[in-house]
Amino acid sequence: MIATLAASEHDRRKYCYYLRRSYIEARKDTKWCPAPGCEHAVSYDGGNENYDVSCLCKYAFCWNCTEEAHRPVDCETVKQWILKNSAESENTNWILANSKPCPKCLRPIEKNNGCMHMTCTKPCEFHFCWLCLGAWSDHSQKTEQSILEAKALEDLHQMQTVNMDKVKELQGIGVGDGEFEFLLNAWKQIVECRRVLRWTYAYGYYIPDHDTAKKQFFEYLQGQAESGLEKLHHCAETELLPFLDEDCPKQYSLSHAFIHFKTKLAALTEVTKIYFDNLVRALENDLSDVEFQ
């Protein structure tokens, strides 16, 4: 009634806009998608303990804290991880602009190249990290973990922006959607596994050093899952290429070679899903299956 009586079309649209927003924001089971520029709302039925939800815009986020979907780690771990990385980023420019004393002999060391691995001059020759001043031998594992996390982020972006377009191209070359459904399932699994893998590094970072058994079990599960993911990723991306180059894709889609590829990729997708389901379940249970001596 009020919208009908509004003085202008602009006023009516403005009224309807705020009416819709107030309706969404008043509901406990509905939230606006936090993705930049998205105007969709997402509902959550609360039927399980998994807070990860997906919007129509394809952005996945946590219903509880509205950060990016982060299963299997909890919201508090995500908060600590984000604050830690934010603080390190803010301090990096200041740190890199100053000379520092060697943490062993206290002799001033000036950074003159891009590498974080520093070596003090003779006779000290102590190897240390420029950012945290810790011994390089102790720091290298954390450095490797950061590199792996960055790799997971890069791969996830690649999956979402480039490789999904390949699937759409395949569906437009005269072959029915069902013929390539296994490939779409594989890429969806890769995207999900890369996201899960990235957050496992946050979980591993906060395992206390004295919990040796838990750390070893975590590294075993993570390594098993990552190994399976790399095989799946290689098959989906590299072994598909010969079929994309064929002049008659529909004909080759029924060839013996393609059927073999299809069977292999479907099997790798299922195995990788099992690995990651086991990893997620174990981390959500805080690795309770570990038997401490």
List keywords for this structure.
8% strand; extended; two-stranded antiparallel ribbon; 8 strands; mainly alpha
Description:
Pathway: Protein modification; protein ubiquitination. It is a single chain. The protein has helices at residues 2-5, 9-26, 75-96, 136-170, 181-205, 212-237, 241-244, 249-252, 256-284, and strands at residues 30-32, 41-43, 52-54, 60-62, 100-101, 108-109, 117-119, 127-129. The protein has 293 residues and is mainly alpha-helical. It folds into three domains: 2-62, no CATH class; 75-129, no CATH class; 140-284, no CATH class. The strands form four sheets. It has a two-stranded antiparallel ribbon. Strand 1 and strand 2 form a beta hairpin. The longest helix has 35 residues, at 136-170. The mean pLDDT is 76.
